[in-house]
Amino acid sequence: MKPNLFSTLMYPTVSLEESVGLDQLLSVFESDDKFVPTLWGHNEMIRLNYNRNELIERVSLKQPKFSEIYLHRDKTVRYSGHFDLTLTKRSFLSFTFDKSMHQKYWSTYFMLSDQIAEIVKPRFGVTHIFWPAQTPWKTEIERMQKWMNLCSYPVPVKFIPNGPLGLGMRTYLGGDVLEMFDREILSDIPAVVTDLSWGGIRIDLADNPWELDSEELLNNWMKVMQHLEKAHLFAIPSFDRDHMGVAFSPNSLWRNYLGR
Q1: How buried is residue 244: exposed, middle or buried, by Cβ count under 10 Å (0-12/13-18/19+)?
Q2: How many other C-beta atoms are found inside a 10 Å radius of the C-beta of residue 187?
Q3: According to the 3-state scheme, what is the secondary structure of the chain?
Q4: Smallest Cα–Cα separation from 114: which of 101, 99, 125, 123?
Q5: Using CA atoms, how far apart are residues 165 and 155, in angstroms rounded to an integer?
Q6: pLDDT tens, position by position, 73-104
Q7: This prediction's pTM
Q8: What pLDDT is stored for residue 1 in this prediction?
């Protein structure tokens, strides 16, 4: 069995509308030949040949004003993604990499994730390698696999109303979201916790999380989630009776946050 998706999702605290931030983010993708974009656009329908200077110039002119930028790579390593230029609590960055990415690039992929995080300084973010999940699930292990996969893909429609869904293979906490977490609880979790230079923290499920196979990944994830369960830090899951999916609702911390 092989992974079927590589995903990086972040909620920035830095505006990418300014040329400095945008230039830095593009530099991250250009720092390795295997990650340089080949196409770009200001919506998902437009795909122009990637030209860094043209992209930055058109964003800076603001005529018309772009709200988001899409980047694609149609060569090995293949990916598609987008990010908001203006900064709000809903600002979002998302990149998905094709399952064909060779294992020799996995560590570089996680390095790329750290470099992106250093630029955008996420309130919350997850970088995760997804292994196939059984649908509908038939065993407890399959149910947990489904839950982990959904926790590791915190798209706005789920994150905004419910808060952090759970941990992924690599999780970033910063800004107002980090303030909700008790540092003392995080200090003794069965995971690798790293303070980052930009003020956030990174939680890895292993020293080199990309080396975990599907069974090790799920075992490590379950241990950490069970440890944090008593702290009520994550959204409350509700498992469908048909064993097909998982719904979420906000915990008391996030409800209070939304009510500010």
Answers
A1: exposed
A2: 8
A3: CCCCEEEEEEECCCCCCCHHHHHHHHHHHHCCHHHCCCEEECCCCCCEECCHHHHHHHHHHCCCCCCEEEEEECCCCCEEEEEECCCCCCCCEEEEECCCCCHHHHHHHHHHHHHHHHHHCCCEEEEEEECCCCCCCCCHHHHHHHHHHHHCCCCHHHHHHHCCCCCCCEEEECHHHHHHCCHHHHHCCCCEEEECCCCCEEEECCCCHHHCCHHHHHHHHHHHHHHHHCCCCCCEEEECCCCCCEEEECCHHHHHHHCC
A4: 125
A5: 10
A6: 999 999 999 999 999 989 999 999 999 999 99
A7: 0.96
A8: 76
The alpha carbon of 4 is separated from its chain's Cα centroid by a whole number of angstroms, namely: 16
Q: Residue 215 corresponds to which tokens in the numbers above?
A: 């069974």
- Here the tokens at position 83 are 């990010």
